[in-house]
Amino acid sequence: MIPYYPAGVNRQGKELLFVVLFTSDYCPTCEEVEKVWEIFKRMYRDELVFLEFKLANDTKKTFKALGVSWVPTVVFYDEEERELRRVEGSFTLSELEKGLRAALRRRRACLQAS
C-alpha cells in the first residue's frame, strides 16, 4: 500500500518501480546515508520513482501498515505495489544497487508467473 503516487506518474499501462526511503529525524544513521540516497536518486532518476517518508505523527500508520519498524529502510515496490526487496539499516551505494538488481529479478519472476 503505497500511500500515494506522485503527480505526473501514470499508473495505467505503465510498468513502474518505486523506491521508498523511510527515515526519522531522530536517527543518526539516516543522516549518514543521505548522501548515498541522493547519489542513487540521481543515477536512476529517469528509470525509478522515488518517495521518502519521515516518521512523524501523521506517518506512523503508514510505517506500521508497510511493516517498517527500522530506519533507515529502503523498500522497492512494483507497479502492483508488491514489495520486491527491502534494505534495512545503514547502506552503501553498492548495497542499494544490489537491492535494485534483486528487485528487478523478483519483478521478472512475478511477471512470468502471471
From TrEMBL:
InterPro entries: Thioredoxin-like_fold, Thioredoxin-like_sf, Thioredoxin_CS. SUPFAM superfamilies: Thioredoxin-like (SSF52833). Gene3D superfamilies: Glutaredoxin. CDD domains: TRX_superfamily. Pfam families: Thioredoxin_2 (PF13098). Residues 13-98 form the Thioredoxin-like fold domain. It comes from the Archaea. Belongs to the glutaredoxin family. This is Thioredoxin-like fold domain-containing protein. It comes from Ignicoccus pacificus DSM 13166. The lineage of its organism: Archaea, Thermoproteota, Thermoprotei, Desulfurococcales, Desulfurococcaceae.
